[in-house]
Design brief:
Shape: globular
Order of helices and strands: EHEHEHEHHEEEEEEEHEEHE
Number of strands: 14
Low-confidence stretches: 154-163, 281-309
Helix content: 10-25%
Strand order of the largest sheet: 4-3-1-2-14
Number of helices: 7
Radius of gyration: 20 Å
Largest sheet: 5 strands, parallel
Strand content: 15-25%
Amino acid sequence: MRLCFLVEEQYRHDGMPLEVIRQLRAWGHQVDVVWPGRSLIRISEAIRAGSHDAWVLKTVSGGPGLTLLEAAASVGLTTVNDVRAIRGVRDKALAAVIARSKGLPVPVTYAAARPEEFAEIDAAEFPLVVKPADGSSGRAVRLVASPDRLAAPGGPEGPDGATGGLLIAQPYVPNSGTDLKVYSVAGELFATERRSPLHPAHAVRERQVPLTPEIARIAAEMGEVFGLDLYGVDILRGPDGPVVVDINDFPSFRQVPDAVARVSGAVLRLAADGGGKPVPDLAPEAAAPFTAPSVPPPARSAASIGGGR
């Protein structure tokens, strides 16, 4: 099988997806790599119908990789995840509206271009969690205790008060300072704990934890609503039950057992199936137990399209 990975500069030393690329190559598959942020790409030549069995994206929100993935999809190539699903979750404002409209436990969400505009929200709804709608990896997420702190130094706005993009705000959900991250690997769900970015002083040992039926249902429904196969859902255990605060395509899969082999196998299965579930899907199929794909005869040496590795 021949695959093409789009890897943004931010992830050029990251275990995900570099270890997955190495594993797929070790299994005998050809993996080409496109580095959107550090090389000239002959896009008309790189993206040709039939040139790859599937394209896989690991990129930051708003990065150039998503445009390239959409270009691949536009000529009928398979993408992992489905490119329409990725677009749906990259905009956190859009994702919150979609998820809440489907009855998922997502907080009331406000949007504004400047943080001080959130001062119109009733003071009783503070503290607020304010973050960029196109943010990732906890970047510029802040807890705002009261309306008078919205424009405090260290906020996500620039020198002129502008952010360069949309901000969202949600009422803070009281919690222990430990986030629950649920990963889906093509239908297999894994629950892990990690420290909340809003509570950096809170000591948390990252680990896999038991997955309750309620959390499993919520995580599976998130995948169905957005049509994702490889994703992570951030869930808080609040006083009124679980609350979803974020969803990400192709996350780190930290603390997932045998993560590299599982994700690599899932990429191959999704590529063979034409990209996995449609967008949206009615219900996920039960996940088959993981088995490493058989290794075909060695393929020719993998190339890196548009630049060095």
